[in-house]
Amino acid sequence: MPKPEWFQGPLPAFHRKAKRVRKIYYLRNFRNPKECIREINRSGGRPVRILSHLGIIVGEFINQQGARSLEGHPDVAHWEFDSRVRITDPFAGEITDQTRDQLPWGVQDVGAYKVWPYTKGRGVKVAVIDTGIANDHPAIRKNYAGGVNILSPMFTPYDYNGHGTHVAGTIAGSAAELSVMGVAPRVRIYAVKAFNRRGSANLSDLLSAINWCIENEIDVVNMSFGMSNVSDSLRQAIQTAHRRGLTMVAAAGNQGVAGPTDYPARFEETIGVTSVSRNGTLSSFSNTGKGVDLAAPGEKIASAWLNETTREMSGTSMAVPHVAGACSLLIYLKPDLSPDQLRSLFIESAGTIRNTREYGKLNAYRAAQSLAHYMGRFIP
Questions:
Q1: Catalytic (active-site) positions
Q2: Which residues catalyse the reaction (predicted)?
Q3: 86-374 — its CATH code?
């Protein structure tokens, strides 16, 4: 194995059975990264991720003692231990060859089909940070544009769980014969695989995924996951992506609580989304409270699944792609829309929810009409 130029001395030896500890370092203005890498090496660790767009280095150590390196270092603004994040959904229906509705009820409910004569999101770049995407699914393959496997970079970001494929189908599905149509059926969909087949990811994997999205100039980032504990590193990553103009849409969570929502939806830089049912009320599993900007269909949503099938799923994870798709529809009409302008358009044009007045329900049709009016155009 060749040594990179910044290695001094022998490569650190790692015992396969030893428990490894990962630590995330956020550097001040990404100053002196080589010095920080050398310090990690001197402590018996190794740098496993260098995320230049985020100013973050991830180091791996074989024990807690070595992981104490760089504490108090003048170039380190803050640090935290790596942690686990999981995808959870309260309902998964049966797998079928075709959905019951000719057009998914969520796509109908948000009025997306009414603006398809004017915009289908053509060419807008949407990344799904998830379990990957089954790019051979007939509803997705025409719009699939590639991606990255954060977990195993030498492999494709194929989905062996199903969650990411379901989300992608709601955004970019384009198979009328299977009744799988997405909100924006002409976008370019990218798979950013950060979660394994069990629906689990490291925080450092999510940071790497966001770094990839910045590097590849993604327009909209779908984040159908959440965590209850705040992460300073994730906050910094979200803020950096927001400053770069990436629109990030995140799930409020599925605990059915009225208190604070999950992160990253709770960060003000994201569009936080909770779920409504087919009858227009908040779903029983929906988190509500601080961090929620909007509600969207998320209950018994039929979309693409593994092995070229379809499946009904419920969760705020299913609500998020309706908003991500709607973002794409508007960005096609006006490519320089900022994330905050998109949020305002959706909030101002939102429909009512039967059992709450705290926020409204996504209406992509009204949002497109409002944007067209602002631009001096007309969508009837």
A1: 130, 163, 317
A2: 130 (charge relay system), 163 (charge relay system), 317 (charge relay system)
A3: 3.40.50.200
